[in-house]
């Protein structure tokens, strides 16, 4: 935007100067009067160009400031993302440990159920054996 504005202002000034030179060449006889008018118009054109360039400079300064703010925002966002990434890595380790522990406890639960079933079967077998010996001692 700033370069485009600067180029337009520069082109406008060149066209104005060319038009003034053409008019000066075509009028010939009134050269002395024209020089005075030309100097005044050149001064006006020069001041207009200066004001235009100052406006462009201000616009460029604003753009630079906006770019700096955007850069600072990007830096802050990157820092936040890196912190979140580190936190997720540590949570991932905790989740892996939790998964291992749950798997281990599930295996122990299965082993405990099997042992309880075998103990119950042994108990019932013992009870049946005692009942058989008491009720049917001759068998």
From TrEMBL:
InterPro entries: Sec20, Sec20_C. The keyword Coiled coil applies. GO terms for cellular component: endoplasmic reticulum membrane; SNARE complex. It is found in: Endoplasmic reticulum membrane. The chain crosses the membrane at residues 114-131. The keyword Membrane applies. GO terms for biological process: retrograde vesicle-mediated transport, Golgi to endoplasmic reticulum. Residues 45-135 form the Sec20 C-terminal domain. GO terms for molecular function: SNAP receptor activity. It is a single-pass type IV membrane protein. Belongs to the SEC20 family. This is BCL2 interacting protein 1.
């Amino acid at each position: 935007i700033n370069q485009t504005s600067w180029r337009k202002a520069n082109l406008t000034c060149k066209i104005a100067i060319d038009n003034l030179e053409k008019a000066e060449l075509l009028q010939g006889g009134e050269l002395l009067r024209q020089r005075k008018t030309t100097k005044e118009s050149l001064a006006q054109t020069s001041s207009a160009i200066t004001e235009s360039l100052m406006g462009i400079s201000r616009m460029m300064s604003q753009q630079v400031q906006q770019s700096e703010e955007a850069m600072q925002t990007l830096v802050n966002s990157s820092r936040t993302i890196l912190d979140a990434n580190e936190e997720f890595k540590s949570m991932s380790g905790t989740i892996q440990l939790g998964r291992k522990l749950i798997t281990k406890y599930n295996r122990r639960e299965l082993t405990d159920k099997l042992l309880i079933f075998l103990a119950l079967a042994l108990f019932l077998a013992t009870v049946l054996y005692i009942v058989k010996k008491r009720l049917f001692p001759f068998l």
